[in-house]
Design brief:
binds 6-O-phosphono-alpha-D-glucopyranose; Rossmann fold; 15 helices; 463 residues; alpha/beta; 5-stranded parallel β-sheet; single chain
Length: 463
């Protein structure tokens, strides 16, 4: 292989695969200051996961670094052209982690991994025995001093933030502004020094989210990131990093990363409510008990798969789908529609159920499936009236609800997916499962590339 000279902005990592025995040890200890390392191959990528099956060591590059790579050597230079010393770390990945095991696709494997990884994430943030929130580190701010929280992310991560907005406002009585990162960084929102900005990102490398983080830091806000990759740029540059323990998210469409983000954000919202005096000890315990139940309820929700697989055969024949929800089910409707769009390329739109009459109702006829996310909660009756509007126009309702909701729904849905009974607050983590399964099986029927949908990237490291 000849010499490659690359200016590194989009590629933040490279790894070296090493030989055996002494050469391997040498390479693990090698510095990259232009000396010969004993690597037998050098790889360059923008996401450490992509490198997981290959190298033994990984080096994380900084912005504007550039590197000269050969098969055996690598030299890193900084923006000024001086040789730069960057830490060489052992690769955390392995080929085991990036195999589909008994599943046909990574997406299926990752959907089914959720009870386990959400459980791991729960135990990082909750003292299960004491039934208390127990954040792994002391926060460098007091929630009582926070006048407003700003939450920023892209794609599914922004929808996790949208769900969290409801939680923070309801449980901690703190106002939350939610933005997609690409808008936030340019809209010159008035920000108050000392307030809190939360950044949500699976990869921790999304360019717009990273730029938003840097923008906010410069304004003197506290920055907290919820990331899955602790070595990522967003993790490293934020004041506080709360990790999701989803493990490697290989499928491009976020599944387990999304529900783990929700778990971290739910725990943080309860912590905020507690420290602001909005939640008593007893209320904290009650909420934590509900969080502890989530992994089991997710496993129960996975049992709807055969029914959803059957439904997907009809969905695959449709050109458009509408998703409706109220309260925390509204951002989930956005996420469900995004998932279907991303992997099956069926056009789907998520709406707040109450917005139906302000536009989307014009689309409803007997060719239109309408997925309604409606756990039996405080806004269920309202959603039922929206379902009646859909039914009156011949729309085919696919109702995601619980046993009580199924009994009380009045209208006659085409299909009812019955999910386990649970108290209202944290339903999105469980109701996201049928949403993911529906998108997955529709894509499988349609024969699209499930794990690497066309035109999409796992980590978008360019603006
Ligand atoms: C891409 C991916 C999405 C992801 C979004 C945000 O668009 O395809 O699955 O939700 O980026 O990524 P992040 O890594 O910041 O969560």
């Amino acid at each position: 292989m000849g010499e490659i000279d690359l200016r590194v902005r989009d590629c933040r990592h490279f790894g070296t695969r090493c030989g055996r025995g002494p050469t391997r040890r040498f390479a693990e200890a090698a510095d990259y200051r232009g000396s010969e390392s004993a690597g037998v191959a050098t790889y360059l990528d923008s996401d450490a996961i992509a490198l997981a099956p290959f190298p033994d060591t990984i080096t994380y590059l900084e912005d504007d670094d550039w590197a000269v790579l050969t098969r055996k050597t690598s030299v890193i230079f900084n923006a000024q052209g001086a040789v730069a010393h960057r830490e060489v770390v052992k690769s955390g990945g392995s080929s085991f982690l990036v195999k589909t095991a008994n599943y046909r696709h990574f997406m299926a494997k990752e959907i089914h991994a959720q009870p386990e990884v959400v459980g791991h994430t729960l135990r990082r943030y909750v003292d299960v025995a004491a039934e208390r929130i127990a954040l792994p580190q002391r926060l460098p701010f007091d929630f009582n001093d926070i006048g407003r929280i700003s939450i920023t992310g892209c794609g599914s991560s922004s929808y996790a933030g949208y769900v969290a907005k409801y939680w923070f406002e309801r449980l901690a009585r703190v106002p939350v502004e939610l933005d997609v990162a690409s808008e936030f960084r340019y809209r010159e929102a008035p920000l108050r020094k000392g307030d809190l900005a939360i950044f949500i990102s699976q990869s921790g490398e999304t360019a717009d989210t990273l730029a938003a983080l840097r923008y906010v830091k410069a304004q003197g806000l506290h920055t907290l990131s919820v990331v899955n990759v602790p070595t990522s740029a967003i993790a490293r540059e934020s004041e506080t990093m709360l990790q999701t323990l989803a493990g490697p998210q290989i499928g491009v469409a976020s599944t387990k990363a999304f529900t783990c983000q929700l778990m971290v954000l739910a725990a943080l919202a309860v912590a905020a409510g507690k420290s602001r005096g909005e939640l008593s000890d007893a209320e904290e315990t009650r909420l934590v008990q509900r969080l502890i139940e989530i992994p089991r309820l997710m496993a129960t929700a996975l049992a709807t798969e055969p029914q959803i697989e059957k439904l997907a055969r009809d969905m695959a024949k449709c050109r458009n789908v509408v998703y409706l929800g109220r309260g925390t089910s509204f951002p989930l409707a956005l996420e469900g529609a995004l998932k279907l769009k991303e992997i099956s390329c069926v056009h789907a739109e998520g709406y707040a159920a109450g917005e139906l009459k302000h536009g989307p109702i014009a689309l409803i006829d007997e060719t239109m499936p309408v997925v309604v996310i409606a756990p039996y909660d405080g806004v269920f009756e309202k959603t039922v009236s929206n379902m009646q509007e859909v039914a009156a126009r011949g729309g085919n309702i696919i109702l995601m609800t619980d046993a009580k909701g199924a009994r009380e729904a009045i209208v006659d849905p085409l299909v009812t997916i019955v999910l386990p009974d649970m108290p209202a607050t944290f339903t999105p983590m469980v109701y996201d499962i049928p949403m993911q399964l529906l998108a997955y099986h529709t894509a499988v029927v349609m024969g699209t590339n499930v794990d690497q949908p066309r035109n999409l990237a796992k980590a978008v490291t360019v603006e």
